[in-house]
Amino acid sequence: MKQLSQLPDTLVRKFCDRPRTYKRIKNGLLKLYVATKKGAKHKLLQTLIEYHDAYDLRALSVKNIFELVAKVKLLYPNLEVHTYRCLCSRLAPLFSYKCAVEWLKQNNFILSLYSGMRYCPYCNADPVYATRIKGQSVRSDLDHFFPKDKFPFLATTLHNLVPACSRCNRLLKSDQIDDLLNIAMPYRDDFDDNLHFDILIENIGDCFSRVRIDKCHVISFPNKNKSEAGRAMALTCFFGLEEMYDKIFFEDIGELLRRIQIYSSNYPEFLKLKGINVSQMIWHDIPDREDIDKYQLGKLKRDILHQFGIM
Ligand SMILES: [Zn+2]
Residue 235 Cα, ligand 1 centroid: separation in angstroms? Predict the structure, then answer.
């Protein structure tokens, strides 16, 4: 929903400061490099080793990795697709998610990754959490936005790991995604800025006097002049957010509309003088913009209040 805060530098550095895995990747690359005497594959491995020395491949962001791949393709147009895929499959074990996750668990990194976030960044509806119970770490899913079988180099990249609810994680695993680059990604896009939800009411009188929830529908609109609006809309469609909010949260939405009608027309002056916000009277837990992920449906509720001129 909201752009996840950038991963804290100290944590990324701590994650990368693992001499054993750094060496394992370096040695693996060198071994393949020595085994291939010449040609584009040889040069590609050399580039990867140089990158690993300079930046540490484990810490690159998804954007950096794609830039690297694009650069490699430009540099070595002669590299056949088959050769490239073979090379990827040889290199993939070096970026083993299993090893990385073991380290993440031991170092409470996962707890930090989830900290400050309570609801899924895709649907903003289901809780995500990580905690320790009886010494065991318990957590909801950790989604690979770009699947690790298709993008082995992104298996352990921290910027590709998104805490997510199991419903969204399962949808992302399906084969329906043709082009992941077209969907808003929590570490890259600020969803909140790019799209807004409105309530479409078939008959306003009906709806407000004795709320006919079946006549209200959630619809989404791209925010004009936002270059990433298309990606945010694609995410909404992909996860079926309009239908989901309509069907699962219609009671909540109806209650919100009822309160808007009661409080916005008769908002007592003395409460204003005491500095009590009308939006708090209508819905006590409307989050600040930067805290959307801490509240269930925070984005939807904020947008509805905005639609009716409360915020
Ligand atoms: Zn979700």
Answer: 11
| Residue-level length of the chain | 311
First to last CA, the chain: 19
Are the C-beta atoms of residues 44 and 76 closer than 8 Å to each other? yes
H/E stretch holding 198 reads strand 195-201
> Going by C-beta distance under 8 Å and a sequence separation of 6 or more, which residues neighbour residue 128?
114, 117, 118, 119, 120, 121, 140, 141, 163, 164, 165
The Å distance, Cα 242 to ligand 1 centre, comes to 13
For residue 296, the Cα-to-chain-centroid distance in whole angstroms is 16
All residues with CB under 5 Å from ion ligand 1? 120, 122-123, 126, 165, 168
CA of 36 to the centre of ligand 1 (A): 45
**Per-residue tokens: 119:** 């609801």
- Residue 241 CA, ligand 1 centroid: distance in Å: 9
Q: Per-residue pLDDT averaged across 70-75, rounded?
A: 73
Two structure tokens written together for 233: 């809309």
Nearest 5°: the CA angle 254, 259, 262 is 130
**Can you give the C-alpha Rg of the chain in angstroms?**
24
* Rounded CA separation 64/188 (Å): 12
Most confident range, picked from 37-51, 83-97, 118-132? 118-132
Mean pLDDT of 65-88: 72
Contact (Cβ atoms closer than 8 angstroms) between residue 284 and residue 301: no
* Contact (CB, 8 A) for 140 and 166: yes
The structure's pTM equals 0.76
For residues 177 and 174, give the distance between their C-alpha atoms in angstroms, rounded to a whole number: 7
- For residue 200, the cross-strand partners are 217
Strand-strand pairing, 195-201 and 216-222:
antiparallel
Cα separation, 62 vs 155, whole angstroms: 10
Tokens of 100: 């990385």
Q: What's the CA-to-centroid distance between 237 and ligand 1, angstroms?
A: 13
